[in-house]
Specification:
This protein has six helices and 24 strands. By secondary structure, it is of the alpha+beta class. The strands form six sheets. It has a five-stranded antiparallel sheet, with no helix packed on it.
């Protein structure tokens, strides 16, 4: 029993130390959060500017038929999600300003998320340990990536990884769902009977405008304090992330597609960068990516992100440079 008692004592000491390192401003802003459960160095967490819910997440957004949508330019990016025979598109012009959409698709509660600073777009199943969570935007960043929070227990969740990093849920992880960042035209043509998220009502936002004009042409990410990616890869270069592997988008585009590491990757032109021009639909070409299992053809969870974010969250990740 003595080793068990010592182990429990050590865990209690670590929890106390984690709680002690939470600065006063953090405790004051988040009185409901359990700071005795922490899996990260809280010194890595900074304010992104807006307070909690200053960027308002959406819950149960409205949808319209694909045929009724007349606002989106063909090249505008959407995050698409297909579950069973239900196909939905979430325009980045709306997620740019709201970052999270809590929705239910074919009976599956989902959180459709987009962090502009990392170009990270991920759809998650909102069910964890038998409970369905609803997510909001904390206003906090870690490695320049959005920290979400759940409105049930006020735990903090890293958007890039889907992992709970602070609070009672620490150590739990959301299940990522296969989704696509693709052009509106690609989704519309593939899903003529699908539905697209309607423009949110009640918010004074310049939907369709890019508030981060020129961001992905810069030399350094906003509020990022981490390392430069290895191999001479620029911090704001786009890479395809599949698990802990990253392929430079430039390499994929040049080849038109690759089959490596058990996946088949395709690239086709037609999608605008959401983080380039003043109007999202006018952004420079980045193209559409699909990733499937090379053996079965099944969709594979992936995302196209900035290289710095991949390196920050996968410091020992594999860089698929083709050399």
């Amino acid at each position: 029993m003595r080793p068990l008692i010592l182990a429990l004592s050590l865990l209690a000491s670590l929890a106390t130390a984690a709680a002690a390192q939470a600065p006063g401003w953090m405790r004051a802003a988040w009185p409901e959060t359990d700071f005795s459960r922490v899996s990260i160095d809280l010194a890595e967490v900074i304010s992104g500017g807006p307070p909690r819910d200053g960027i308002p997440a959406l819950t149960n957004p409205a949808f319209i038929a694909v045929a009724a949508e007349a606002r989106l330019a063909d090249r505008e990016p959407v995050l698409s999600l297909e579950i069973g025979d239900v196909a939905r598109a979430y325009p980045i012009r709306y997620l740019m300003w709201h970052e999270i959409a809590n929705d239910t698709v074919a009976g599956v509660p989902v959180a459709v998320t987009f962090c502009p600073l990392c170009n990270s777009a991920v759809a998650f199943d909102r069910r964890v340990a038998g409970e369905t969570l609803e997510f909001g935007v904390s206003g906090l960043l870690r490695h320049s990536d959005m920290i979400m929070y759940d409105r049930q227990g006020f735990s903090w969740w890293q958007q890039f990884t889907g992992e709970a990093i602070v609070g009672a849920a620490t150590g739990q992880r959301l299940t990522a769902l296969p989704s696509l960042m693709e052009s509106w035209a690609a989704f519309r043509d593939r899903n003529p009977n699908g539905r697209v998220m309607d423009e949110p009502s009640g918010w004074r936002r310049s939907y369709g405008r890019n508030p981060y004009e020129g961001y992905d042409s810069g030399s350094w990410p906003f509020l990022y304090q981490g390392e430069t990616p290895p191999h001479g890869v620029a911090p704001l270069a786009r890479v395809l992330r599949v698990g802990a592997r990253a392929w430079p988008l430039s390499r994929i585009a040049e080849a038109g597609g690759l089959t490596e590491a058990g996946v088949r990757i395709t690239w086709t032109p037609g999608q605008a960068s959401a983080l380039d021009a003043a109007r999202i639909g006018d952004g420079r070409e980045v193209g559409d990516i699909t990733v499937t299992d090379a053996a079965t053809g099944a969709p594979v969870v992936h995302e196209v992100v900035f290289a710095f974010a991949f390196h920050a969250f996968h410091p020992d990740g594999a860089w698929m440079l083709g050399q």
